[in-house]
Amino acid sequence: MSIEIKAPTFPESVADGTVATWHKQPGEACSADDLIVDIETDKVVLEVVAPQDGVIKEILKGEGDTVLSDEVIAVFEAGAAASAAAPTAEAASTEAGDSDKVGPAARKLIDENNLDANQIPGTGKNGGITKEDVLNFMKSGAPAAAAPAATKAAAPAPVAVNVAPGERVEKRVPMTRLRATIAKRLVEAQQTAAMLTTYNEVNMKPVMDLRKQYKELFEKTHNGTRLGFMSFFVKAVTEALKRFPAVNASIDGNDMVYHGYQDIGVAVSTDRGLMVPVLRDTDGMGLSDIEATIADFGKRGRDGKLGLNDMQGGTFTITNGGTFGSLMSTPILNPPQTAILGMHKIQDRPMAVNGEVVILPMMYLALSYDHRMIDGKEAVQFLVTVKSLLEDPARILLDV
């Protein structure tokens, strides 16, 4: 029985998608729920799985092709046994013989970057070269093929060579849809918002001492969930947002939209780009709930399994450049939100305390905000509130 494999149903905010990677090739056996293809949209990578046991009979949309919501991308033969793959959009050119099967998306990358297909290990059916194989080959720093000579000489066996000193090598890699969308949104944020940034610093010793004291007990009590710093920041920000509603608002045309809830986005860095999954109703979440949800976001982000629903909405964003060693930065707004908090590296510094110099673990905080919506006074007071709550974390629990 033949079954049509369709692209996922995209939400209204997503016009179309791109076939990113075929994980199964025609004739290759699939079990029910096996991942067969990734569809990349402007916001997230969606997975399409096998509807039941069988094989891919025909691929209608190759890697790099644009697909619409619910468009048929392949034909699946339910219950069929694995067989040799027939030529399809992913089966390919035979420039180097039958053993060198290069898909159209892979061929395009090879041609654009002047690569030698013979040097690229193929992981597709019968050693076929996929787009992902080419991208991995380029990431490894492999050399480009030499420019073709006027007369074609006998090609020597392919060998691995190092780039000669002084050689100026360039690689051209097309932007993914996600990366292009991120770039577009960041540029729009700077062009449309009256963005300013205010800074402060926070003494992290009280939070660090509390975490050290209860870390093991917290992990045992909450089924292995680890107590990190982000949950303290989320709770401090949530309380500060309640006190300064304009920081929790958004701009919609000429309207200012005040949100009576706190949905906080937490920036997660992945190989595909920066993603911002959202913690919903953080006022009702405990520290363990926040830490467990963030850990799940991070794992699914790295595995490419964050869904559209995970990243839609959000009234405020927190980004932590400190995990990469950043001492200070200016975060960019995440439209239509009007503010974003940047965390940074914790660093011991000499501080004056009661007339004495004390070494304390300090962190710079940066709040970027849209001056069209938020006055400087509110922005500063909001950041001071976050600082005060973190330097006396008992106030977070006591709501004072």
TrEMBL record:
| Keywords from the named record | Acyltransferase, Lipoyl, Transferase, Tricarboxylic acid cycle
- Report the superkingdom from the record: Bacteria
Q: Name one GO molecular function term.
A: dihydrolipoyllysine-residue succinyltransferase activity
Q: Does the keyword ATP-binding apply?
A: no
Enzymatic reactions = N(6)-[(R)-dihydrolipoyl]-L-lysyl-[protein] + succinyl-CoA = N(6)-[(R)-S(8)-succinyldihydrolipoyl]-L-lysyl-[protein] + CoA
**What does the entry list under GO cellular component?**
cytosol; oxoglutarate dehydrogenase complex
Question: Which pathway is this protein engaged in?
Answer: Amino-acid degradation; L-lysine degradation via saccharopine pathway; glutaryl-CoA from L-lysine: step 6/6
* Family to which the UniProt record says this protein belongs: Belongs to the 2-oxoacid dehydrogenase family.
Matches recorded under NCBIfam families: PRK05704.1, sucB
Q: What is the recorded name of this protein? A: Dihydrolipoyllysine-residue succinyltransferase component of 2-oxoglutarate dehydrogenase complex
Q: Which organism is it from?
A: Neptunomonas japonica JAMM 1380
Q: Which gene encodes it?
A: sucB
